[in-house]
Amino acid sequence: MKQQEKAELLLSLQQKGAGLLLPNVWDVASARLFEEAGFAALGTTSAGIAFAFGYPDGERIRREEMVQVIRRIVAAVQVPVTADIEAGYGSAPEDVAQTMRVVIAAGVAGVNLEDNTGNTEKPLYELEAQGARIAAARQEAKLAGLSLVINARIDTYLFEVGEESTRLQETLRRARAYLEAGADSIFVPGVIEPGLLQTLVREIPGPLNIMVAPGAPSAPELFKLGVARISIGAAATLATMGLVREIANELHTEGTYEKLAQYAYGIGAAMRLFR
Questions:
Q1: Are 67 and 101 in contact (CB under 8 A)?
Q2: Which SUPFAM superfamilies match (predicted)?
Q3: What DSSP string runs through 150-185?
């Protein structure tokens, strides 16, 4: 498929009632394994890519390094890839536009753009400022002739911003404004409670994306609540790191290979994965 066809497919997959389960990948190997498992689209995880390069999360990795990985992932799979571009690598709309230009050139079908400033004293961009940043992203997609999917992330719940009593209304206020600015869907990580999810689905006039991890309701249960798109963030990366830690500890303390044997992946299968 061409890039525009992938963008159109991604947009259709995440409509209300369709139900898109989107794994997040951090390198070509993880991307190919999830594609081989049958997923219709993939997302990148900024945290996972940052960890793989030796950085903490939160735009500490250089944009060029991040985009290099995204480009390699897009080139290695046939399914649409949506890229986590964090907060756009800069506060100004032009910073977001510049990031959009390079990720569009990398072949992505969509992006995640968050409203988190990285500043603990003022954790979220003002609504008007974030709206302008989303509009800049949409303009770059239009200039490229693409129906690129913009998934606008709202971090009110993930970072517990503001008073709990006003958090829902602030989330809804931002969601409506972001959709008007050019977003296609709204991403509210940090929410898995069914009652709250139903309220968000009912009150947000666009598809709702949430992030899950062990302990969350199953994907089919969440789709029944009306959630349109489910992603896993850095969870698979962290689980892989946990497995490597177990292998390392066993190898160092016991000198045995049980974990290696338990999760062995054949060299022949690995070679075929990248042909």
A1: no
A2: Phosphoenolpyruvate/pyruvate domain
A3: EEEE--TTTTT-S-HHHHHHHHHHHHHHHHHHT-SE
The CATH number given to 3-233 is 3.20.20.60
d(CA 248, CA 255): 10
For the chain, state the CA radius of gyration.
19
Q: What are the tens digits of pLDDT across the range 165-185?
A: 999 999 999 999 999 999 999
Q: Which residue has the tokens 């945290």?
A: 47
Residue 189: exposure state from Cβ atoms within 10 A (0-12, 13-18, ≥19)? buried
Q: Quick one: tokens of 181?
A: 């600015």
Q: Which residues of 222-236 are buried (b: 16+ CB within 10 A; e: fewer)?
A: bbebbbbbbbbbbbb
d(CA 52, CA 25): 11
Any bridge partners for residue 185, and if so which?
Answer: 151
Q: Strand locations in 106-238, DSSP E?
A: 110-114, 149-153, 185-187, 208-211, 229-231
List C-alpha distances in Å: 266 to 26, 36, 155.
21, 15, 40
Q: What is the value of pTM for the model shown?
A: 0.97
Q: What is the pLDDT of residue 275?
A: 86
- Answer for the pair 55, 49: CB distance below 8 angstroms, yes or no: no
- The predicted-structure confidence for 45-99, as pLDDT tens digits, reads as follows 999 999 999 999 999 999 999 999 999 999 999 999 999 999 999 999 999 999 9
Asked if 76 and 28 count as a contact pair (C-beta separation under 8 A), the reply is yes
Domain parsing of the chain, residue ranges: 3-233, 234-275
Tokens standing for 17? 């009632």
